[in-house]
Design a protein that fits this description.
Layout lengths: L1 E10 L9 E5 L4 E5 L6 H9 L6 E9 L2 E2 L5 H4 L1 E5 L10 H8 L7 H14 L15 H14 L4 E5 L7 H17 L4 E4 L3 H7 L3 E3 L2
Parallel strand pairs: 3-8, 3-9, 6-7, 7-8
Antiparallel strand pairs: 1-2, 1-4, 4-5
Helix pairs in contact: 3-5, 5-6
The chain binds adenosine-5'-triphosphate.
Keywords: ATP-binding, Nucleotide-binding, Transport
GO molecular function: ATP binding; ATP hydrolysis activity
InterPro entries: AAA+_ATPase, ABC_SmlMolc_Importer, ABC_transporter-like_ATP-bd, P-loop_NTPase
Length: 210
Amino acid sequence: MLELAALSITPRGGLPLFAPLTLAIPPGEVCTLMGPSGIGKSTLLDAIGGHLSPDFTLTGDIRLNGQSLLPLPAESRRVGLMFQEALLFPHLSVGDNLAFGLDPAVKPRAARRAAIEAALADAGLAGFYSRDPATLSGGQRARAALMRALLAKPRALLLDEPFSRLDASLRADIRRFTFDHARAEAIPTLLVTHDASDAMATGGPVHHLA
Ligand SMILES: Nc1ncnc2c1ncn2[C@@H]1O[C@H](COP(=O)(O)OP(=O)(O)OP(=O)(O)O)[C@@H](O)[C@H]1O
């Protein structure tokens, strides 16, 4: 369960970006966050992931499975991120990009390779291990980026407009793929989008920042 409790974010010397936000996302639910440009949606995701700029102060709490995330550095929070750009490291193969996400507890080389090959197959990318990410289509890149996030066994997933660069037909496919995985792996997921069809497709609640 990912919980935001009376969460408020204020830039230095300014006013709070939005009214205090309280919400709870149970395992496997995809909750949508909407709101006008500049209200602080991406900043809120930064705060949950542990990447909030020191230019902001935060009040309230962010809890994951009952534990406050606020004292934890980003790398200890185990929160997965997926952005609009579906960024893959350009100097690494597709497989090595996914390896970057893989839980370090999986140690033997063969086990690591097998986990990555299985994730690639799941994403319709069997045989792509050695490919240069620059040679992937937008949809293939989005699926690879999601798999990299999931291989890290995140305890929550934050999606910041991850479908907005995809054309309409691909968009529906990739978002079904993404939400199905969040549900199947029982990961509480927060989606930022401007697109009402994305929000509808989640089957979950919608919160409007104001
Ligand atoms: N370092 C900073 N110091 C103070 N204010 C900042 C800083 N960085 C960003 N802001 C402001 O914080 C606000 C929140 O920005 P944010 O990118 O989170 O909005 P958003 O809702 O994600 O917008 P969009 O929908 O356009 O992506 C904006 O008004 C922005 O101008």
